[in-house]
Amino acid sequence: MIHVLVSDSMSSEGLQPLLDAAHINVVQKKVEEVDHELHLFDALLVRSATKVTEELFEKMTNLKIVGRAGVGVDNIDIEAATKHGVVVINAPNGNTISTAEHTFAMMASLLRHIPQANVTVKSNEWNRSAFVGTELYGKSLGIIGFGRIGGEIAKRARVFGMNILVFDPFLTKDRAEKIGVSNCTLDELLTNADIITVHTPLIKETRGILNKETIAKTKKGVYLLNCARGGIIDEAGLIHHLENGHVAGAALDVFEVEPPVNNKLLKFDNVIVTPHLGASTKEAQLNVAAQVTQEVLNFLDGKPVTSSINLPTLTKELFDKIQPFYHLAKKMGNIVSQCMKVPVQEVAIQYEGSVAELETSFITKALLSGFLGARVDITVNEVNAGMIAKERGISFSEKITSNNSGYENLLEVKVFGDNQNFVLRGTHVPHYGERIVGINDFNIDFYPTGHLLYIQHQDKPGVIGRVGKVLGDHEVNIATMQVGRKEKGGEAIMMLAFDRPLDDTLTSQLAAYDDIVSVKSIDL
Ligand SMILES: NC(=O)c1ccc[n+]([C@@H]2O[C@H](COP(=O)([O-])OP(=O)(O)OC[C@H]3O[C@@H](n4cnc5c(N)ncnc54)[C@H](O)[C@@H]3O)[C@@H](O)[C@H]2O)c1
Ligand SMILES: O=C(O)[C@H](O)COP(=O)(O)O
Q1: Does residue 72's CB lie within 6 angstroms of at least one atom of ligand 2?
Q2: N or C: which terminus of the chain has fewer CB atoms within 10 Å of its end residue's CB?
Q3: Which residue is catalytic, options 3, 175, 276, 375?
């Protein structure tokens, strides 16, 4: 008998195939209610309420798969799952439409004061003049983050006669054209939008993307919406601009801390809120429950799963041989992604030497997952990297070459993006480790780890000294430094390593020097 624990509320219709399976025993109870039986379960199905922690994995000694009936897996410790050999799957697009519709409902409610008016009529008030609203028609809607949900919102906004402004640094031209939108800068969006809605993942780059400073750049009377993740709009910054009257109103489905007990935002009459309801429709819940049910059934039957977050696909023996290149490739993908903050159409990987004899498709997926990991909400790994790249309009290829560049093994990645290409070469030296040995046309040699700064500059006296001085003035200690150039007085590069991350003001200060062409900070 197989035992499945369903720990959060889920559509029974979606779960039906599991409930019908004679060889499967389904228990629908909270984790805390079955504390003494946790070791029995083979599969665990959750939404966002159950926290799937390292401690829980330790108790669920028979667990093989966790199914998340939804998108975000931030409530599941993926590293711990992988460590415990537990496969994690999710349902990435089952609630897209519901969340887009909820955002639209929030937008209409916000501009027409529907929740506030509803309360007064039910309190026997009939105050029509207090609730004069604003039309959506003809307004500019700024969408920050143009993935699945952002795209669905744009389709609906167009039908409402709205102008659409999009900011998504990773949006490809092809996809933008297909949906009929044009990508602008964040500043253009901020200064021109009447209404702004965020649909990015909550990551380092998007945490507080709307804050005291950026909201100050928006039109007076702007409306703001967050139906993605609490923290993308900085709550303190929003409160500041609600208090000074710059923001006309806000609609929030998500909060920095949920539930938002004693949150000052709840005191504003022009802030409307819902308790994380984006995915709460019969249809979305049926979709996500049915998707994870099917995946879990497939997995338990020994069939492949399609939306795995962390499924290992190699035998241990093969994995051991591949491991050094797997780690190198992942880092190379991550470096390239951080150096190419523009839409990318193509990633081409070339293998030379002994690495070319291994299962290179796995290494290619590792590189892609390193590349995509910095750009998308869901956890990307070797299993889902190809699918995600395809979904984002990024083609990828791998080639085995008989070139002999002098290295025992060599990985070369070429990335082609909007008006910009980037080439990175790396090697693994047995008993010595990973080395990056080439960037574009330059030869270099550094260990890819920690906090790095990549500077392109003119080969002139004083440039290195100026960089050293700026860093010294900020009390930043340089751990290692490599330089490379093609010819005397021509283009040159530096790669510096530090013990701590650098702040943006420092990189901007360095980038302002005439002889410095570009500065990119890389965190691995
Ligand atoms: N309220 C809810 O109940 C609910 C339901 C579903 C999803 N969500 C949340 O909505 C968000 C979006 O979901 P999705 O399915 O559309 O995800 P997605 O991965 O399809 O789209 C995210 C988009 O954000 C873009 N992005 C990444 N970094 C960015 C940056 N620095 N600036 C601007 N854009 C950036 C990506 O390029 C991508 O296009 C996620 O945070 C998800 O967890 C909330
Ligand atoms: O990430 C998601 O899918 C949404 O935030 C929905 O979460 P929920 O399943 O708890 O409603």
Answers
A1: yes
A2: N
A3: 276
Same fold, 2-92+283-301 and 95-273: yes
Q: H/E element holding 499?
A: none
482-516 tens-digit pLDDT: 998 888 889 999 999 999 888 888 888 999 988 99
Question: Residue 317's pLDDT band (boundaries 50, 70, 90)?
Answer: low
- For ligand 2, whether the C-beta of 47 sits within 6 Å is yes
Instruction: Please pick, among 13, 37, 258, 391, the residue that the annotation labels catalytic.
Output: 258
Res. 311: pLDDT tops 60 = yes
- Mutating to test ligand 1, I would choose from 47, 48, 71, 104 the residue with most ligand atoms within 8 A of its C-beta, which is 71
Q: Where are the domains of the chain?
A: 2-92+283-301, 95-273, 312-448, 449-523
Pick the CATH number of 312-448 from 2.40.400.10, 3.30.1330.90, 3.20.20.140, 1.10.10.10: 3.30.1330.90
Percentage of residues of the chain with pLDDT beyond 90: 74
- Who contacts 120 (Cβ-Cβ below 8 Å, separation ≥6)? 127, 130, 131
Q: Which pLDDT band holds residue 78 (cuts at 50, 70, 90)?
A: confident
State how far the Cα of 493 lies from the Cα of 213, in Å rounded to an integer: 33
Average pLDDT over residues 21-26: 96
Q: Does the pLDDT at position 313 exceed 60?
A: no
In the residue annotation, 258 being an active-site residue is answered as: yes
491 Cβ contact list (under 8 Å, min separation 6): 456, 457, 458, 459, 485, 517
For ligand 1, what atom is nearest to the CA of residue 200? 24
Q: pLDDT: is 18 or 315 the higher one?
A: 18
Written as one string, the DSSP assignment of 156-191 is: HHHHTT-EEEEE-TT--HHHHHHHT--B--HHHHHH
Among all bound ligands, the one having the nearest atom to the CA of 378 is 1
Ligand 2 atom showing the smallest separation from residue 68 Cα: 9
ipTM: 0.99
Q: Is 229 a catalytic residue?
A: yes
- List the residue whose alpha carbon is closest to atom 10 of ligand 2: 48
276: annotated active-site residue: yes
Q: For residue 348, how far is its CA from the centre of ligand 2 (angstroms)?
A: 35
**Whose alpha carbon is nearest atom 11 of ligand 2?**
279
Top-tier CATH class for 95-273? alpha beta
Ligand 2 pocket, residue 70 CB under 6 Å: yes
Q: Could you tell me the pTM of the whole model?
A: 0.72
Q: Is the pLDDT of residue 315 over 70?
A: no
| Confidence band of 316 (pLDDT split at 50, 70, 90) | very low
Q: Which CATH superfamily is domain 2-92+283-301 in?
A: NAD(P)-binding Rossmann-like Domain (3.40.50.720)
Question: 3-state secondary structure string, 6-57?
Answer: ECCCCCHHHHHHHHHCCCEEEEECCHHHHHHHHHHCCEEEECCCCCECHHHH
Please check the confidence at residue 314 and state whether its pLDDT lies above 60: no
H/E run at residue 509: helix 504-511
State if residue 98 touches ligand 2 by the CB under 6 angstroms criterion: no
